[in-house]
Amino acid sequence: MQIRFLSAGLLALSLVTGCLSTSEPIVIPTIETTGFDPSLGVNLAASTKTSDGLYYRDIVVGTGHTVVPGDTVGVLYSGALATTGHVFDSRDSTSTAGPFTFKVGANQVIQGFDEGMVGLKVGGKRQLIIPTQLGYGSQAQYDANLNVIIPSYSILVFTVTAVSAK
């Protein structure tokens, strides 16, 4: 039994290695050349670009506390794939779990989401356009059934509403 497992493991490794040794180069998409799904309402011209490539745009300017690193924020959000508009995750006001909370700057979320919170005011709604290097990069994300929900090198679009910060 143990030998079969080892053999199956070696076979799987050789198949993966064979797939990785392809001569086709990996093309990493850029935000500026991406065709965004129209349902996302992306407007790069109205967005601010940070030095590391994140774009953000306040859709609604809040009137509450301005989020700074170290704050614990509560947010409602929707995350979608840039080119298809497919929503891969969301938390809205009807969620029984309530808002998603995390500490800004504590690496509890992907880097682009963390960075995109800074400066958002409670009550505000912001669109984040996250480049691959601030998202999941080469690491595809899977659901419990091992179906890909976020392909490798995906540009992500989040709409985030800050409902609390302290």
Please identify the top-level CATH class.
Alpha Beta
Please state the second-level CATH architecture: Roll
The percent range for helix content is 10-25%
Extract low-pLDDT stretches: 1-18
What does the largest sheet look like? 7 strands, antiparallel
Q: Could you spell the SSE succession in H and E letters? A: HEEEEEHEEEE
CATH topology name, in short, is: Chitinase A, domain 3
The count of domains is 1
Total strands: 9
Percentage beta strand? 25-35%
The overall average pLDDT, rounded, is: 89
Instruction: From the alpha carbons, calculate the radius of gyration and give it in angstroms.
Output: 19 Å
How many angstroms does the end-to-end distance come to? 55 Å
Word description of this protein:
By secondary structure, the protein is an alpha+beta fold. It has a single domain (29-165), classed as Chitinase A, domain 3, CATH 3.10.50.40. It has helices at residues 2-20, 111-117; strands at residues 48-49, 55-60, 72-81, 87-91, 100-103, 125-130, 141-142, 148-150, 156-165. The strands form two sheets. Strands 1, 2, 3, 4, 5, 6 and 9 form a seven-stranded antiparallel β-sheet that branches. The chain has a two-stranded antiparallel sheet with strand order 7-8. Strand 1 (48-49) and strand 2 (55-60) form a beta hairpin. The chain is globular. The N and C termini lie far apart (55 Å). Mean pLDDT is 89; it is low at 1-18.
